[in-house]
Design a protein that fits this description.
Chloramphenicol Acetyltransferase; transmembrane; lipid metabolism; six-stranded mixed beta sheet; acyltransferase; 4 domains; transferase; alpha+beta; eight-stranded mixed beta sheet; single chain
Length: 781
């Protein structure tokens, strides 16, 4: 078989584009300076976070005031100063030390003691305050005086301008819910699916009672012990057993995608678009490295956990035969990106000699050179399909990786893999034409063309020939809102000021002060043996088969949005959930076990919890909608009752009172202690026929409203994922402002009863029918 040879040929850039022949001493001085800058920010942030919510100024002010009192000797402070001198005796600060020195020493000693007490008092007070979750159950406009006073206390106790990770030490740990509550919640969620008097429900009730009496409380006590010392009682197990131990292929089954602007396209030049996106995303990375991104706050008061942001860049999921491993590379060892074009892989250093991010125009020139250069080199079909290996089942990919890259006689293969896996991100230029159709853009974002996405990397930035762009994210390192938050910085700046980014020809505007690249892009070396080529070809066919099986439909419902829904006095999220239940029942004639993802980041190291949105109230509303003789007033009342119940369930999940993560943790403990529970196994393996998720929108506090006419076409449609169950649907939706809702519906063509297009049509009809209930009726009905 052909071998992909090294090709470090000269990029055909403008004269003087590359800097060569640098002075060794100057390079050493710059490297030393950059190292000092990194250490400065790391040390400063470590001190700042360690002192938060207090500040070093508290120590300085306290020390200054005490020094002033000791020198001044006011009569009203006589008792206080005498105690301070007693402290001096305790600290053995005797008369042999001059008075002018003794006073500052006593002041510093007292100030330090007071500062430490204040630090822990404020930190634990804030943790206790944040443990209160009653605010979630009160709408902002109707909060009680108690909740308003609580919010004021949180603001007073909280520190001033926290850095990205400052709030971590003050976040409460997620509590373990009562066992009885969890079991009751589980049975209640299964009753509408099977029926109150069905044999399945009776069996579940019996098994739950037996589990509670036998090993339930023993497992509960062990779990409570873990919750006292672990940052989070379930997150580490969730990451390990749900993500890293899963042997399924990553595309469609685990990873997800994010699309760019819905209709707005600032340029049709993919190299220019990549130059801007990569440049701005690297600036966001630098802000994150320096902890200059403020933590997200709910209602401008309550902080959420930011721990997932630590692995947003330079992270790779390394396949293992039994379990995968997440490897994160520090910024000092990850200063490059990998660019994939026409099957060739290029290493591109993205910082100049002063450590600054390369300008947008310089990056554009580099990317354009790579696209052109990659077409000049012959490559076999097998070599161009290398990325298909990452789409395999994890155990198989791990064995191929070990045999052909780690233990191969060709050392270039090991070096190639090390360079790729340590990259900040992968940038992929797709040569296949992709239309502006949402569904086609979504499919290319979720699984690509079978050879243009390295699925193990934390993020792949995919650029189409039309200038469109999508992000493909590996899921185990963080949940979707994290990278959506980071990419929102990029989207917002691009939509707000396109004329300041691109010229009239669609190219990035040059920056006269921009530094030039340190070195030219390097086309990477790896050896493709005949046996490896066969593995790659098999992987590519496997990937194409899975891609063809995905039925993905993405649409923009623009007849109304959450602005109208709020007028109905119904939670927009609950409204959409009821619409999904109605659409599914009309299409399939039955109800489906439904999963909606909710975040638990109000707690330290929290990730997600399941909201079981199929309730008896939801079923009553759906049946009323399908009944021929039922007046609109009754249907509206049933809708509001079901929506209120759903909203309460969602809030309970956010407050750590869901049942699924609790049951999962009990199952893990039981297996670890040698117990087999058929009850836990059977309930946790029930298929989620409807797997749903509402996407966050406008997480940045200062983002211009997407409801403004000039920005309505700039909003991103969000992203989506594959179905969790082979016979089910994956539904993600974004309530994009007051005027539209984006839906992403996925299913498998091989399933006998699913059809994403038909289901989307039913969703649209259900949206129209539910809105029609309120036509001619007062919203107070």
């Amino acid at each position: 078989m052909a071998e992909a040879r090294v090709a470090v040929s000269e990029p055909k850039l403008a004269a003087g584009q590359m800097q060569e022949g640098r002075d060794t001493l100057r390079d050493a001085a710059r490297a030393w300076r950059k190292s000092l800058v990194r250490r400065f920010f790391a040390t400063r942030n470590s001190i700042y976070n360690g002192l938060w919510p207090t500040h070093i100024y508290n120590l300085m002010v306290t020390t200054g005031l005490v020094t002033l009192l000791l020198f001044w000797h006011p009569a009203w402070a006589g008792g206080f100063t005498s105690r301070l001198w007693h402290l001096a005796e305790v600290l053995n600060i005797g008369d042999s030390i001059p008075y002018t020195i003794r006073v500052p020493l006593v002041a510093i000693a007292f100030g330090l003691i007071f500062f430490i007490l204040l630090l822990y008092l404020r930190r634990y007070a804030l943790r206790a305050l944040l443990s209160y979750k009653g605010w979630m159950y009160q709408p902002p406009r109707t909060q009680s005086w108690t909740t308003l006073a609580w919010g004021l206390l949180v603001k007073i106790v909280s520190g001033y301008k926290p850095s990205t990770y400052s709030c971590q030490a003050a976040l409460p740990r997620m509590p373990v819910p009562p066992l009885r509550r969890t079991l009751d919640q589980l049975i209640d969620s299964l009753t509408p699916l099977y029926g109150q008097d069905s044999g399945q429900v009776r069996d579940f009730k019996r098994q739950a009672a037996e589990f509670e009496k036998s090993i339930g409380y023993k497992l509960q006590r062990v779990l409570q012990l873990k919750s006292w010392w672990a940052p989070n009682y379930v997150t580490d197990w969730w990451e390990k057993y749900v993500y890293l131990m899963s042997r399924s292929p990553l595309p469609i089954n685990s990873n997800y995608y994010i699309l760019d602007h819905s209709y707005f396209k600032p340029t049709s030049n993919p190299a220019a678009r990549a130059g801007y996106i990569v440049h701005h995303l690297l600036r966001v990375k630098r802000m994150l490295d320096r902890e200059q991104i403020e933590p997200l706050l709910i209602r401008s008061t309550i902080p959420v956990c930011m721990s997932q942001y630590e692995r947003a860049f330079s992270t790779t999921r390394v396949p293992g035969e039994d379990i995968d491993e997440l490897v994160h590379y520090p910024s000092s060892k990850s200063k490059h990106i990998i660019v994939l074009s026409s099957g060739h892989y290029y290493k591109v250093d993205v910082y100049d000699s002063d450590g600054a991010v390369l300008s947008t125009r310089v990056l554009e020139d580099l990317f354009q050179w790579i696209v052109d250069d990659s077409k000049q080199h012959d490559i076999s079909q097998s070599e161009s399909r290398l990325a298909a290996l990452t789409a395999l089942e994890r155990t198989k990919w791990a064995k191929i990786r070990r045999q052909h890259f780690l233990e191969s006689e060709a050392s270039a293969n090991k070096d190639f893999l090390a360079t790729l896996e340590s990259a900040i991100n992968v940038v992929s230029f797709c040569s296949d034409p992709v239309s502006d159709d949402f569904s086609e853009r979504g499919k290319m974002g979720l699984h690509g063309n079978g050879r243009n996405i390295w699925f193990d990397k934390n993020a792949n930035l995919i650029f189409h020939p039309s200038g469109r762009f999508a992000v493909h994210c590996e899921h185990s390192w963080a949940d979707a809102p994290v990278f959506a938050h980071l990419i929102e910085f990029v989207y917002t700046a691009e939509a707000a000021n396109p004329d300041k980014i691109y010229d009239s020809g669609g190219r990035c505007l040059p920056d006269p002060a921009a530094q030039k690249p340190i070195r030219q892009p390097e086309r990477l070396v790896w050896r493709c043996s005949e046996s490896l080529a066969n593995e790659i070809d098999d992987a590519y066919q496997f990937s194409l088969k899975n891609n063809a099986d995905l039925d993905l439909v993405v649409r923009d419902f623009n007849e109304y949005g959450k602005g109208v829904i709020k007028c109905f006095k119904v939670s927009p999220d609950a409204y959409v959930q009821m619409v999904l239940h109605l659409a599914y029942y009309r299409m399939h004639g039955k109800f489906a076990l439904t999963y909606e993802s909710s975040m638990t980041r109000l707690f330290l190291c929290g990730r997600t919890e399941t909201v079981r949105s199929l309730t008896q109230s939801a079923c009553d509303f759906v049946l009323a909608m399908c009944a021929k003789e039922c007046d609109s007033g009754l249907r509206i009342r049933l809708l509001r009752r079901a929506a209120d119940e759903h909203q309460t369930s969602y809030r309970n999940a956010m407050a750590g009172l869901g049942c699924d993560r609790h049951l999962f943790a009990l199952y893990v403990i039981g297996r670890g202690l040698g117990y087999e529970s058929e009850f836990l196994k059977s309930t946790l393996t029930l298929p989620w026929i409807l797997s749903t998720s509402q996407q966050p929108q406008q997480q940045l506090a200062d983002t211009p409203s997407c409801d403004l006419p000039e920005f309505r076409d700039c909003v991103s449609p969000g992203g989506g994922f594959g179905p969790v169950a082979d016979q089910g649907y994956g539904v993600s939706y974004m309530l994009a402002g007051d005027f539209r809702i984006f839906f992403h519906v996925s299913s498998k063509r091989s399933a006998a009863d699913t059809d994403s297009t038909r289901f989307m049509d039913h969703i649209y009809q259900a949206l129209r029918d539910v809105k029609a209930l309120f036509d001619g009726h007062s919203t107070a009905v």
